[in-house]
Design a protein that fits this description.
About 50% of the residues lie in helices and about 10% in strands. It is α/β, with parallel strands linked by helices. The chain has a five-stranded parallel beta sheet with strand order 3-2-1-4-5.
Length: about 180
């Protein structure tokens, strides 16, 4: 597998959606094998809060699912966002932008400020580490200061901070995933 120097920071939805919708562990195990290889080689990066979001969803179930067991293996391969002063400083800049930008309602800041929401931390870590963010979240093309949006979207905030943002399939193409 050729990686050509790409480094991607992955959003939680790029694990949960494939797991629930189309890359089932028993039908397409090669997706998970390729993803694991990309993590091991340092081309796909896991943020601690992304892992926590996956594990949080699991706590309500009696038996661990395959995604939880798979992601638990990556204990030492995580970016520890809250322990990195550069990421913390950048995170505060991200929140400051949402708060002071006339495109968003206060509810956007409230959501992104929650201790278990990874979105702002993803952008902060991407800024510091020069990563490309991978998410299924779609940009809001209708942002208007006269009608502020109640939610901030990762692609819009990435654009403001000059962070490249792609979906999972674009990442897979760049990393030459073959399933």
């Amino acid at each position: 597998m050729s990686f050509e120097g790409n480094r991607f920071l992955i959003d939680t939805n790029c694990f949960i959606d494939p797991f629930k919708k189309y890359y089932f562990f028993d039908l397409v195990p090669t997706f998970w094998q390729r993803m694991e290889e990309a993590i091991i080689f340092g081309h796909v990066i896991l943020l601690d809060l992304v892992k926590n979001e996956i594990l949080k969803g699991q706590k309500e179930k009696e038996k661990k699912d395959e995604l939880t067991m798979w992601v638990e293996r990556f204990g030492n391969d995580l970016i520890l966002s809250r322990k990195n002063p550069e990421i913390m400083d950048m995170y505060l800049k991200v929140l400051d932008y949402i708060q002071n930008c006339d495109l968003y309602k206060s509810s956007a800041l409230t959501e992104w400020s929650k201790k278990d929401v990874a979105d702002g931390w993803l952008i902060a870590a991407a800024c510091v580490g020069e990563y490309t963010i991978t998410t299924f979240e779609e940009r809001n093309n209708g942002l208007n200061p006269q009608y502020p949006s109640p939610e901030a979207k990762i692609p819009n905030i990435c654009e403001h901070f000059s962070v490249e943002c792609v979906d999972l399939f674009a990442m897979m193409r760049r990393l030459h995933f073959r399933l």
